[in-house]
Amino acid sequence: MNDDRTASRPDISVVTTMYRSEPYIEEFYSRVVKTIRKLGIKSYEIVFVDDGSPDRSRDLALQLYAGDPSVVVVDLSRNFGHHKAIMTGLSYTHGRRIFLLDCDLEEDPELLEQLVTEMDRRGCDVVFCVQQERRGNWFDRVTGELYYRIMNAVSGIEFPRNVFTLRLMTRRYVDSLLLHRERELLISGIWHLTGYEQVAIPAVKHSRSPTSYPIHKRFALMVMSVISYSDRPLRWIFYTGVGILIFAAFYIAYLAVIYLLYGIRVSGYLSIIVSLWLIGGLNFLFLGTIGIYVATIFSETKQRPNTIVRAIYRRENEHRAPA
Fold first, then answer.
1. Burial of residue 143, with CB atoms counted within 10 A of its CB: 0-12 exposed, 13-18 middle, 19 or more buried
2. Segments forming the whole domain that contains residue 46
3. Quick one: the chain helix, strand, coil %, rounded to 5?
4. Residue 42's Cα: distance from chain center in Å?
């Protein structure tokens, strides 16, 4: 990268995604700009990524773009999902530092001041927020804790618990983050795996909108997080098969011995049915696990783009979609 491009970088890029975000856009923008000005940051850009939102989120962002040359709008061709939209938004940033957060105002934009102070003090590459206390009722808290325990145990990776989307990152960290090209994307995983020094600070997350992650989506997310970052389930299938084989061999030997020595026959349909159910259930479980891995490989090898950008609205590249 040449020196002219480096010199022209804004001090900070703010990235957010929009999906059913119409009620929050204007307040989000005003609070972000107010916080940036309070910090004395001279140059900035705010990147809004429209993830196929069915409401007027895109129109409101374009109104902001018309009035502020620092606003960038990345218009995706359809809804691709939160994590993929985030990665697309990060790829369009130019800033020396990148501030990522959701625009639904569950995360306070004013936390940027605390993140900047901590990054300057520690000299780290990432400062992110974690919930002091997980929000929701007892069921949400229990299932959330169970999710992290199972994911960490099965994947072998100690993922941070209860993390926010909100984080401040250096340019070199974001450039390294964008090297990840997988299609089955779990962004909290690649945040962690990218490395560098990352510092967590506690914060409060508000509840303004209904969760977009009901229990079935959380379970699917947990399965994908395990499949994407670990081969442990495949190893466990092998060891379980070896264990069942050894047990069956000893049990057959035991039945043969008591029959030959004592003439005792094993009778009863119940033991046969239970054994068939056990082996059948294990077979379906194991084949299903292997099938998920195969499906993930199938998706990755297609090399389809994570997102398709319909248009990008930026002052120096107005209305032109990227190559």
1. middle
2. 3-138+161-210+307-317
3. 50, 15, 35
4. 31
Residues 179-188, buried b or exposed e (16+ Cβ, 10 A)?
eeeeeebbbe
Rounded to whole angstroms, the Cα distance separating 122 from 99 reads 17
Token representation of residue 68? 């502020």
pLDDT digits (tens, 9 = 90+) for 102-160: 998 888 999 999 999 999 999 999 999 888 665 555 566 666 666 667 666 666 666 66
Q: Which residue has the tokens 């957060």?
A: 101
Q: Report long-range pairs for 150-158 (Cβ below 8 Å, ≥24 apart).
A: 150/222, 150/226, 151/222, 151/225, 151/226, 154/226, 154/230, 154/232, 154/233, 155/225, 155/226, 155/229, 155/230, 155/232, 156/230, 156/232, 157/189, 157/192, 157/193, 157/229, 157/230
Strand partners, 243: none
What's the residue count for the chain?
323
Query: pLDDT tens digit string along 193-223?
Result: 788 899 988 888 876 555 555 566 666 666 6
Structure tokens at 59: 């129109």
Helical H segments across 55-107, by residue range: 57-67, 82-91
Q: Which residues contact 144 (CB under 8 A, 6 or more apart)?
A: 134, 136, 162, 218
Q: Evaluate whether 57 touches 20 at the Cβ level (below 8 Å).
A: yes
Query: In the predicted model, what is the mean pLDDT of the chain?
Result: 79
| Shared-domain flag, residues 99 and 201 | yes
DSSP state of 23: T
The helix-helix angle for 232-262 and 215-229 (nearest 10°) equals 90
Question: What CATH number does the domain containing 47 carry?
Answer: 3.90.550.10
Q: Dihedrals φ, ψ of 301, to 5°?
A: -75, -15
Say yes or no: 169 and 46 in one domain.
yes
Most confident of the ranges 29-33, 78-82, 209-213: 29-33
Backbone angles phi, psi at 188, to 5 degrees: -65, -30
CA distance 185 to 296: 11
Axis crossing angle, helix 269-301 with helix 232-262, rounded to the nearest 10: 160
